[in-house]
Amino acid sequence: MHTLKDLQSLVSVAIDKEINQLYQTEPRHLYEPIGYALAVGGKRLRPAMVLLGYSLFDEQVEKALPVATAIELFHNFTLLHDDIMDGAEMRRNNLSVYKKYSENVAILSGDAMSIMAYNALLKSNSEALPAMIRLFSQTALEVCEGQQFDMDFEIRTDVAIPEYLKMIKLKTAVLLACSLKLGALAANASEKIADQLYDFGLNLGIAFQLQDDLLDVFADQDKFGKKLGGDIVANKKTFLLLKALEISGEETKAFIHEWIDKKDFDASEKISAITGKYNELGIKEITERSIDEYYQAALNIFNEIPLADETKVGLLQLANLIMNRDH
Amino acid sequence: MHTLKDLQSLVSVAIDKEINQLYQTEPRHLYEPIGYALAVGGKRLRPAMVLLGYSLFDEQVEKALPVATAIELFHNFTLLHDDIMDGAEMRRNNLSVYKKYSENVAILSGDAMSIMAYNALLKSNSEALPAMIRLFSQTALEVCEGQQFDMDFEIRTDVAIPEYLKMIKLKTAVLLACSLKLGALAANASEKIADQLYDFGLNLGIAFQLQDDLLDVFADQDKFGKKLGGDIVANKKTFLLLKALEISGEETKAFIHEWIDKKDFDASEKISAITGKYNELGIKEITERSIDEYYQAALNIFNEIPLADETKVGLLQLANLIMNRDH
What we know:
2 copies of one chain form a homodimer. Chain A has a single domain (4-324), classed as Farnesyl Diphosphate Synthase (Orthogonal Bundle). The first copy, chain A, starts with a helix and ends with a helix. In chain A, strands 1-2 form a two-stranded antiparallel ribbon. Chain A contains 15 helices and 2 strands. By secondary structure, the first copy, chain A, is mostly helical. The first copy, chain A, is 75% helix and 1% strand. In chain A, helix 3 packs across helix 8 (161-186), helix 4 packs parallel to helix 7 and helix 8 (161-186) crosses helix 9.
């Protein structure tokens, strides 16, 4: 049985190999930035999820490495282009691609990366390949839609919670869901179990994003990688802010909007003012309940998946990893 | 028998339908710019080539419309992102997408467009779909490589003719070649004939791009859509310029480089100075010979294609259309 950590290591080795090749491929100005983007790319959670989905049905997880690589290429392509759009100069303590090279490089290398994701997928010799490509391509388009909704929300003042949940589903959760399902399909799992894995990943993905929103305000500062309250300072339309605006009376609403509209302010003053309102409104508890609902929904699906407990254990490791945020 | 004009009309109707749908799809800020990009998108040459390739083997060309749409989506995606990279504000007398909307919109809508190209392709129910996706995806990556080489050449002073030919092959010719071959594969043509069609399109594509270089300097101004000499003013590394640098002596070379390096100049003076050198060197005739070589290579392949002359006639119409440039 492969642990999730094993799978992450396995996929890391494969992607490091890919990176080395990219550094030697012409045209260099196209492929080197792709290698760089992959190299700063983090914990390989999504490609490990592909191997995990595969490992439930077949021990020879190496066979799913092209599929795992496809997901990692696609995920990092979205980060690469998102960083241009968001003007994000840093990515995991490294310069983002457009900052290190140029915007043109980041656009074109990103384009190539998304095509390379398909090419990697096409290396799989699974019989289910057509279904896998359809799922992947559908998911890829959904991720673009999610990014567009996210950008739309930046300039809207009337975002409702269901719209927000739809956005994070598209932008974040579908790719996690797709990763598990692709792995399962690559191992010729039945459509039914593959769909259960998809739904498991989808609920976990939404819980994960809601927790991301929560931790930005209410994490233990010592354990949190960055400064608390970044979303508040940036007026990011998180679940917390939208829920606060939804349930508060006119006076509190006006108070929050006043802080949102302020151009000139002290960051820690703004953080403590908004956090104070969140505390008054019980936003932390409301958000935790919402996270727990999605988490429980994932666990319910987990229980229904008709596989032996010792086979399924990796899925629980995944849920813990995602929810404990030690990644 | 379908004429090439018929096929262009057929594909135009299908793409207009697609455009109408796009204008009604949410998120609007993602899909409307895609509709706009397709709407300003020209003569539908490449998707008509898909139908042409299909029509050689099956009269029911409607079956290849999803494949044709895929090619048109992909081609316009490359234009969309190229316009950002080149700072090109206009596209066929309309504002380019990044200028009409914004750069972020153009990046994300372009990304979605390239994914939608795959999704369109996936609608084909040809048995050859896996081979078709492989060809398409390989070609798409080559087009990115071609664009990168083109950008590299802008800042290089030592581009050799073989490198230039490789660049235009990747940037322009492979997509024309791929269009014909995809159509043939969609109609379950043999790999051998499909490859012949690919090579026919490839040679035609290179001849087409060389002619594009030639006409920029030596076209009949009355028939030419834009002002002559634009490439000379912009120091574009065309076949003409590279060939002139290759064959000229030190003195002429120095003369040309002097004009290239000038920051402050009168455009028509520069055009007439460089054109004068081209005339001295016989560049027009050299380029015409080169175009003719690729054109003849295409015709030789045409003659070898084991289909009846009345079936193949569309390919000759295509060659004429491409070489007479009335598109």
